[in-house]
Amino acid sequence: MIAAPELPSEFHYPQDSDTRFSSDTDFSEAPDGGKKGKKAAGEKGKGGKGVGGAGRMNGHYQENGMENLMLFEVVKMGKSAMQSVVDDWIEAYKTDRDMALLDLINFFIQCSGCKGVVSGEMFRNMQNSEIIRRMTEEFDEDSGDYPLTMAGPLWKKFKGSFCEFIAVLVRQCQYSIIYDEYLMDTVISLLTGLSDSQVRAFRHTSTLAAMKLMTALVNVALNLSINMDNTQRQYETERNKNVAKRANDRLELLLQKRKELQENQDEIENMMNAIFKGVFVHRYRDAIAEIRAITIEEIGMWMKLYSDAFLNDSYLKYVGWTMHDKQGEVRLKCLTALQGLYYNRELNTRLELFTSRFKDRIVSMTLDKEYDVAVQAIKLLTLVLHSTDEVLSPEDCESVYHLVYSAHRPVAIAAGEFLFKKLFSTREPEEEGAPKRRGRQSPNANLIKTTVFFFLESELHEHAAYLVDSLWESGADLLKDWECMTSLLLDDPVPGEEALTDRQETALIEIMLCTVRQAAECHPPVGRGTGKRVMTAKEKKTQLDDRTRMTELFAVTLPPLLAKYSIDTEKVTNLLQLPQFFDLDIYTTGRLEKHLEALLRQIREIVEKHTDTEVLEACSKTYHALCNEEFTIFNRVDIARSQLLDELVDKFNRLLEDFLQEGEEPDDDDAYQVLSTLKRITAFHNAHDLSQWDLFSSNFKLLNTGIENGDMPEQIVVHALQCTHYVVLWYLAKVSEGSHRKELVSLRKQMRMFCLMCQRYLTNVNTTVKEQAFTILCDVLLVFSHQMVSGGREQLEPLVYSPDDSLQTELLSFILHHVFIDQDDDNGSTDGQQDDEAAKIEALHKRRNLLAAYCKLIIYNVVEMNTGADIFKQYMRYYNDYGDIIKETMSKTRQIDKIQCAKTLILSLQQLFHEMLSELGTGFDRSSSAFCGIKELARRFSLTFGLDQVKTRDAIAMLHKDGIEFAFKEPSPQGEGNPPLHLAFLDILSEFSSKLMRQDKRTVHMYLERFMTFQMALQRDDCWLPLISYRNSLQAGGDDDTMSVVSGYSSRGSSVRSKKIKACVFSLAEESSSSSADMSWQHQSMQTPVMMPSPHLTSTMMRGPGDMREEAKRGRDDSYMGVYALPSDSQQHPHPHTLPQTPQLHQTPIDYNTQVTWMLAQRQQEEVRQQQERAMNYLRTNLQQAIRRGTGLMEEDEEPIVEDVMMSSEGRMEDLNEGMDFDTMDIDLPPSKNRRERSELKPDYFDPGSIMDESVINPLFLGRH
Q1: Major location, coarse class (predicted)?
Q2: How does pLDDT run across 364-400, given as a tens digit for each residue?
Q3: Amino acid 438: pLDDT
Q4: Residue 664: burial class (beta carbons within 10 Å; 0-12, 13-18, 19+)
């Protein structure tokens, strides 16, 4: 080794780390602590130019200690090869190691984002702690960002370049320089000190550097270990030779080489021991999750690279403990680190104890709330399963099995791989030279049966598509063995083989259909897709090959399958969906026309046999898929379809004529024949245009007879309504493509007759009929609303139909009586099966659809928006059932018209208030559950307005206006002197006061005073508390500027927002001055009792200049009236801050009561002014501290910086020495101040699931209103 000068005494390893953590690792130190004699500080300059001289690096001259910029800039830009950068630095180190080392120190400092520079004087004379303290003081406090956290492509690559520089530096210095007892000792000592800094940037950067340095040293140690083994093997070989052939000189050289390698190994171990004890054991439990993740990631690399030294329980325990970390990214690093270990089967024996201790934790992490963590946990269990089957118990495996039905696709795919390896990895070996077995005898037959058994045992029979999707990537070849599946269904079992049961055959057919769909469509089922993905050329070719293969197979086997299961509804329904995924050209190119004829015959027979709606709709869709004009088989299929429909329509007309014949009572057999034929026609009319058969007249006649007689079977009426609906829609589709006016008139007549018929059926005694009529009526009104003329379809203007008031009333009445009901009261729609949970869920689903249909009419302005008040007032009572629908409706209506939506919300509260009065009377208790429920509903409504007060300014103002008018609308029944009848409503209205802007609160307060009499302002009885509390809510914060001052420091964009607000205030004041709402308000104000204005006789000489400016400022703020614009007669009521005008010069003398009132007002204003002065003085004294706290060095959601050091203090590290008691490790970080503040808020925990089909409102439709 190279004899090296001593390390200066001020750069030393931390003494406490050498003793405090001696039990945390198997590494042992040399007796002397691993430290050798160091050169004195005064000897640094020998052998070089000395610190502070001029040098040359990377082809550039550097002077005055500023060379650190060059090294940092070169690494940051990443344009130069890192090898050449490190080589240049090594040359500089050989020339002047102090200067080069100072350059490296400043490189680490500047990589932390610090603007300070370590000078040569500081390097010579200051301790590490002093240097770090000085750098901390020079840190840029304007921003918490530093290179490792900065955004942008340049800084994203910086981390990789930074890590690469450290790795290359150690690699290039591994043969000599790192053993000089100067470079590594100095760097390790510096990084250890920085890693314990309170500044996150220093701690993060130095921890990353130390961990990467440790990884590089592990590689060096691994190379040394390999060289030592080789040298020892060479020495043993040479020594075992005969004495005559033995070369003693070679033996001495090998001994000397082994001794030198051992010394180097000891030094490397001392370095690694210092880094591990000085950095890792502190930072693996740092308060910052990213730092903890770095340490765990690197220790995983050490165990993987140098398993002989690191893969033991002394190091594995840190990974096991950290699997309980609170942050998902740290848990994720633990799992990825373990995956690298379990992937190597040679290491399994060393992991046995760890696996037994932490297996349960890994299994529980498959249900982690972070999906990425759950995916990696399942993959880790798959590796464990791959290494040995004995570790995981059946209960452990079952906890992973059910995840194949997860809605999150990566989790399901990982679980599918686990399931495939567990259940399908063992196949029957095929004999060499034997012909390949196919069909029922193929090796996949038992595996397919296993899949069916698993599907049935999981008891999730409606989710076969999810199971297939989960297994698709790992077992696609098995799932696409359709020949084996059809053989299992069609062929007889061989002797000794157990045949499939009926339930198993049903499951196999469903799985087969799902595999066909997955292969043909190449996208996951509904709920798992992450958007449309562009297919690669290979995937497209695979898709085409699969469609060709499935068509060739099922074109032949589908007719016999349909014939075998023709009477089984569920099996036939699934089999009939297969032709939708065929490549229909194969019928022609493969000469399979006879099989097509067989398929059409089977479909016809199924239509004649079945009356089930699902089967008939499947037949209709199959005909629709086969009747494609692009293929040559179209004519053949079209003829078969026309023949079938001709027979059905003729039969229906004949049966209907007999059924409606006068004077005869139709029997049940006639009704069944009519119903079955009508079901078939309706199912086909859904996908096929049957306009040529003129079904409107016969269906309308049938419906009209049902209205007149009242004894029509409900199912006949339901399907007749549905069939007529299809007739109207197909007619509209035809007219939209271009038609004469005569056809428009005919369609308009049919549509209006049909709407009138549906309206008449809304009063039917049968609930099912009423629900069908309501649903169809809502659809027709939406289709034929005013927005149908948008998109250049003005020719359809005669078809626009708007419901009259009576129809709107009936629709709303239906919703209130059939949707907003208790579960136990819904007798009609559940058919007496209230005890059946599935029936209750189905009934709720039906009611949700009814409510959604009506809410669409509100959103698209088909009905008046104020009808939504009856819906919105049910928000709290039926929140669990319809909360998402109602909230989404409120959101959509607010997007259309904010003010009208606000008026609707306040109307709903007024309706509830009226209902409460009628139930409890005028003397109700404001603490009653009914009144508190209305207040809670108002609070929820208030939360839906959000935090942007500028956007909702007009709406909130209109809401208060309507609320105030309602509160004073009805006088007291007890006579004058008592509170108005609805005064308690102001208590409810106060829930919206927090949404008012400051200047608007004063405006609303002025409007409130117009409704108050002089006596009302003096009342203090309990019955007047709503008025008092409402006035207080309007005055709170109205004149206080403290909040705006504080927010100005906390938000950098406050000045911009304030400018926008002022501009908005000015524009709104101009708009409101000429609005029609103000005209109506003016008319109302003439009949409203106005509070007598308090006389302000104070002379301006009694006020200071500051007070005059304050009054002027208030006058400007009060200029905004919004929806509160005072009427033109407001000149009769002078502003409180202005002197009386000329017409009021001849006043009567002020009476005693007025003087007392004025004196009380003056005293109240003086108290308010004193409170403001005290608040401003307090703010001035504490403002600097608030600024310092707001602009700290750490992240926005900052942790207290002292916690970072406390995490590694001696007291907090005592549990490291508790052996393998893994349950004690649970990192629970203290919540930050910001998190505590957020937790104190009262958020509205809503889940606005959008159930509306149309998510975007037509802009032309919005323009109309």
Answers
A1: nucleus
A2: 999 999 999 999 999 999 999 888 778 889 999 999 9
A3: 64
A4: exposed
Which candidate, 858, 856, 870, 852, places its Cα nearest to that of 912?
Answer: 870
| Residue of 102, 276, 85, 86 whose CA lies nearest to 177 | 86
Q: How far is CA 874 from the centre of its chain?
A: 28
Q: How many whole angstroms separate alpha carbon 677 and alpha carbon 649? A: 8
Q: Which residues pair with 62 in a beta bridge?
A: 55
Rg (CA), the chain: 42
Phi, psi of 1005 (to 5 degrees): -65, -40
Tokens 């961990």 belong to residue: 211
One-letter amino acid of 1047: S
Of the candidates 1026, 900, 1036, 999, which has an alpha carbon nearest to the alpha carbon of residue 958? 900
CB 376 within 8 A of CB 335: yes
pLDDT of residue 666: 67
Decide: helix, strand or coil at residue 326: coil
The answer to whether the CB of 215 falls within 8 A of the CB of 287 is no
Amino acid type, 999: Q
Closest CA to 445 of 494, 397, 514: 494
Q: Which amino acid is at 1045?
A: V
pLDDT tens per residue across span 266-292: 999 999 999 999 999 999 999 999 999
Question: Is residue 558 classed exposed, middle or buried when 0-12, 13-18 and 19+ CB atoms within 10 A define those classes?
Answer: buried
- Give 701-729 as a DSSP string: HHHHHHHHHS---HHHHHHHHHHHHHHHH
For 603, other C-beta atoms within 10 Å of its C-beta total 25
Residues 756, 762, 766, 767: what is their CA dihedral angle, to the nearest 10 degrees?
140
pLDDT for the residue numbered 1011: 86
pLDDT > 80? residue 1110 = no
Single-letter amino acid, residue 709:
N
Length of the chain equals 1265
Alpha-helical segments (H) within 860-952: 869-872, 879-896, 898-920, 929-943
Would you say residue 1134 has pLDDT above 50?
no
Phi, psi of 57 (to 5 degrees): -145, 140
CA proximity to 840, closest of 826, 856, 858: 826
- The sign one gets for the Cα dihedral 1257, 1259, 1261, 1265 is positive
Q: What is the pLDDT confidence band of residue 652, given thresholds at 50, 70 and 90?
A: very high
Q: How confident is the model at residue 1176 (pLDDT cuts 50, 70, 90)?
A: low
| Residue position matching structure tokens 């709903």 | 908
For residues 418 and 384, what is the distance between their CA atoms, to the nearest angstrom? 10
Q: Please provide residue 312's backbone torsions phi and psi, each rounded to the nearest 5 degrees.
A: -150, 175
Phi, psi of 55 (to 5 degrees): -140, 180
Q: 1056-1074: per-residue pLDDT in tens?
A: 334 443 343 333 333 333 3
DSSP 761-800: HTT-S-HHHHHHHHHHHHHHHHHTSGGGGTTT-GGGGGG-
pTM of the entire predicted model = 0.71
| CB atoms closer than 10 angstroms to residue 606 | 24
Tokens 């910029």, located at residue: 69
Per-residue pLDDT, 185: 92
Backbone angles phi, psi at 62, to 5 degrees: -130, 145
CA distances from 1114 to 367, 1040, 1042, 1120 (A): 58, 12, 16, 11
Assigned token pair, 470: 């989960």
**Alpha carbon distance 489, 651 (integer Å):** 36
